[in-house]
Amino acid sequence: MPQERIGVYVCHCGSNIAGTVDVEELTAWAGEALRHRGVVVARDYKFMCSSLGQDLIAKDIKEDALTRVVVAACSPHLHEATFRKACADAGMNPYLCELVSIREQVSWVHTDKAAATAKAKAVISGGVERVIHHAPLEPMSVPINPATLVVGGGIAGIQAAMEIADSGFHVYLVEREPSIGGHMAQFDKTFPTLDCAACILTPKMVSIGSHPHITLLTYSEVEQVDGYVGNFNVTVRKKASYVNSDLCTGCSVCEEKCPKSVIDPVFEAGLGYRKAIYRSFPQAVPKFPVIDADNCIYFDTGKCKACEIHCEAGAIDFEQEDQILELNVGNIILATGYDLFDARRETQYGYGRLANVFTSLEFERLTNAAGPTNGNIVLRDGETTPKSVGIIHCVGSRDRKFNNYCSVICCMQSLKFAHLVKERTGAEVFNFYIDMRTAYKEYDEFYQRVLSEGVHFIRGRVAEVTDVSNTPEEEDKLVIQIEDTRIGRQRRIPVDMVILSAALEPRHDSDEVAHQFGISCSVNGWFIEKHPKLDPVATMTEGIYIAGCAQGPKDIPSTVTQGAAAAARVLGRIQQKEMALEPIRAEVTEALCSGCRICNNLCPYTAIVFDEAKEVSVINAALCQGCGTCVAACPSNAISGTQFSNEQVMAQLHGLLMLNIMEPVVS
Amino acid sequence: MQTYSYYPGCALERNAAVYHDSLMAVAESLDLTFTEVADWNCCGATEYITIDLIPAYALVGRNLALAAEQNCNGRSLVAPCSACFLNLKKADHYLAQSPELNRKVNQALAAGGLHYEPGSVHVKHLLEIITEDVGFEKVARAVKRPLFGLKIAPYYGCLIVRPVFDGTFDDAEQPTSMDTLMRTIGAEVVDFPAKAQCCGGHMTQISEAVALHLIHQLLKNAVDHGADVIAAICPMCQLNLDAYQDAVNKHYGTNFHIPILYFTQLLGLAFGFGEATMGIGQELVDARPALANIQVKPLKPVKRKRPSKTELPMPPKLQEVRSCLKNE
What we know:
The complex is a heterodimer.
Chain A: E1 6-11, H1 15-18, H2 23-33, E2 39-45, H3 51-63, E3 68-73, H4 76-89, E4 97-101, H5 103-107, H6 113-132, E5 140-143, E6 148-151, H7 155-166, E7 171-174, E8 189-190, E9 195-196, H8 197-210, E10 214-217, E11 220-228, E12 231-238, H9 253-257, E13 261-263, E14 273-275, E15 277-278, E16 290-291, H10 297-301, H11 306-310, E17 323-329, E18 331-334, E19 338-340, E20 357-359, H12 360-367, E21 388-395, H13 410-425, E22 428-433, H14 443-452, E23 456-459, E24 462-466, E25 478-484, E26 489-495, E27 497-502, E28 504-506, H15 510-517, E29 544-546, H16 556-576, E30 578-581, E31 586-588, H17 598-602, E32 608-611, E33 616-619, H18 629-633, E34 639-641, H19 646-656, H20 659-662
Parallel strand pairs in A: 1-2, 1-3, 3-4, 6-7, 6-18, 7-10, 18-29, 20-27, 21-22, 21-27, 22-23
Antiparallel strand pairs in A: 5-30, 8-9, 11-12, 12-17, 13-14, 15-16, 19-28, 24-25, 25-26, 31-34, 32-33
Helix pairs in contact in A: 2-6, 3-4, 6-19, 7-8, 7-16, 12-13, 13-14
Chain B: E1 2-6, H1 17-29, E2 32-36, H2 48-51, H3 53-69, E3 77-79, H4 82-97, H5 99-110, E4 123-125, H6 126-134, H7 136-142, E5 151-154, H8 177-184, E6 188-189, H9 203-206, H10 208-224, E7 229-232, H11 235-243, H12 245-252, E8 260-262, H13 263-270, H14 288-291
Helix pairs in contact in B: 1-13, 3-4, 3-5, 4-5, 6-7, 10-12
């Protein structure tokens, strides 16, 4: 092997690295000790990622005729692309540059300067040995289908779909329920401005329904996803609604005439009823009802057909079947939202046992002018106005028994509830909180406003809500037992109504959905973004974006922001028309492949198929994400990963162990 | 035939003798064999642990060590008293968690030629064995004279459901296993929200006013909800609610006279044993007038009044509260 000419660049990262690693010694060492391995220049610099730092590398590549570059700095996640581009700009193939981490894996995790410096030497030594074995690679390019799939028709999905469609590109919006609108459509008021949720949401819903560039697929679910960025094939099941949408006028006579009334656990949060043929709510988009076959008398007994008899348009079609649709899209945005924590699990708060304990979503319906009580705040009997109301924060959130995280919206939501109760009933309102979290534009101002309205705030975690009374004043009341941590005393506060601000949880099927789309969930079950700060709407899978509460609990402004951000990312991709893919791929050496097919089913991206004629496995380079699973599994060593070949990995180990120094490698 | 090691605890030899007698009779009807741990000692009750930790754990540790030593074929250890049950379970749990505690306790046990390996004895409460190991179906088959019409408030007390150690068998706040068991033998179960509250324990001896307050709350709650009888699973609970009813009545100007029976006495009656065999009449508040409420036929189910037009629906009951509690 001809000797490579290698440049080594050590970054101080201000004091991030230089504070724990002796960067001058490290640089001098690399120049001396690794000279026999081809290191011709070693430099250190305060910030290698700055344009001056990059210029240093470019200058050396040109003047010193470098053939390889090793940068010792932060994690490749952060700046690999930066240094590859710097090398490419200077005329070197970017894949001949290796970034080794002496920040995340050295300076940030150690305190002993001498030991950290020694470890950094090993890391650089490994990088140098590895880069010798690098080969120049050319990125692949795939065309981007301009159509986009948005999954979930809540406010996040609506925003994303609208932004893309308004730019002239086609969007398929898939929603599980009969109408778009999501949780926001259930609310009456939105914090902190108290504007009416329906007034700001329904115009957007109508625009979605009538948009020339949007195909709205409600009452539908994604069944299968194949393909890769730029070219996904998606199978969607459009559930039979038993209503012919070409004929239906949306007059709602069928709903009036349907004799079967059932509790609506979705839109009415269990607090109200709907018919067996129903629209989620009067402003539903699309306006067509669906028949819930599980509850329909005709599907159960073969008799009834009240809806059909009264439908003047003749739109009822009991013979309708599920439709399977195949969609081709270039990018996918997942905006699948959240489920509300099942408050019955916190048995000490009595939800499900004590009639006048309500969940936050039930209360949203209670205050909604279009809800079961026409917006009257009343007890479960539907008549009595409460004289005192307790609102409990953090139910199922910040609780090691259930969810460790803060659900973000509950403090503001509870303040909104407190205000509405005060305004509409004049009742005494108690908020039971652990910490008040009102950090956003005009949120704390709203907190101050509610404080000035005379709402009581008691700090502590409520021990229990009980109907066991101690005193005559507690008779027939719900008693809230709490340690008031500001006065250091146990208190019992009798109220008529309790509202539980329940946690936001990942959708119950978020694991399956994540698997279907090839992305990951966090420990708590939220979809994982590519970078928590710098890339919050992309995922580790190219072409799959996430927005809204599917990524973590958030309020409406943040949800809309993410919906728009995901759309902007997709639009950027569409405008590129084609996209370069990392050339880090697995390749089959056909001569070595025994055709055992072990790799075929292991590939998480279904990129490997079996060539029956040649009796070898073949990897689709565009599908392959370079994860290396097949490389490790192949019993005949027939698969190698470009940039992760056995040779490269062994060389790096050799370097890490400093074997290159102790007994120079003969190559 | 299932065999268990049996740790009766001191109370079952004295004031709770009827608990012992009735549970032995019930066990036979359910094909259970309880083999008493030989040479057992007091569990230290609820106080000793707060006074001197190491001897307290050694006291319980000795019982565990004996049970382990005499434990043929790895059977579980049953404790019918809630305080004994909790002490055994707690000691086993903390010995496993703390090597230091384990070392000191075993040092003490070694003086008596004993050794205990934490985790080697599986401690269960009697209620757990009957509701889970035996199961409701088998209990139903053993019923000869259902307790139709008898309104029971199932009282769990605070010790068997809290704290939630691994494998604690019922909900920590609103347990339901005894509710189902009592319905299985034909009884009516009244809503009893105070079912897992404390009976006061030995506070009767330390601060009577505190104890009377707690006992009053329990009696009032059961009576308010229409109970004829309170079913107890712990000698301490039974004693406090039974023996201090007069004191409560004096202190609060009330007139409670609700009998407190062990759940095994009620099971035994349903299984066809006579009142005398089940020790009925030995309680301070005589249970016989209440037991006269038992009917030959089940009560006609109360027709649920039609909900008013305005009434809002309740959330459906959670069938299995425990299954959704995350494993810790």
